[in-house]
Amino acid sequence: NDKDLKATLKKFDEMGDLLSIQEFKGISSWSKYLSIRRPKEAAIYDFRVAYSINAINLLNNETAFMFPMPNSRSSRLGLLCLESLFVQSNMMNAPNFVSRADLDLPKFAATIKKRFCISDKEAYSTYLKLLKQVVKKLEPNLPDVDILKIEMLLFALAPKNILYDVYEKCGMKA
Description:
By secondary structure, the protein is mainly alpha-helical. The protein has helices spanning 2-14, 27-37, 47-59, 75-78, 82-93, 100-103, 108-114, 120-138, 147-169.
């Protein structure tokens, strides 16, 4: 709804510290707005970016946490469910990650997701912190790197390079 979006954008315009944002609803839209209004502090958070970060973590067997992924129109990326691959990886690394008793829980999926998913409230601030850490590591060799360039790279690599790597990890032959 346009009225809700306008109210959210107004709130963000008045906000001092972007790390205090605890919204997730509409993140793909309002983070685009913030990246234009405050390009040194904000970056777009959408399905492709979250997919890329999660896939990179999965490919490196780092499945302790997963960024929540906004809804997507990309059937290409959505076909292979990263959430399921994270659960599988965690089950292989920690046999008690899911128990028989867990399967009987009324909110089984939500309970299991809490074990490895970053909460919606923490997603954007955690994402910005991660981008800033990457920039800090890359700056000595790439002095003009910034969070928007990292975000654009994650976005651009998702539908081909990263997707191919995920499929190869799952057994696709090169």
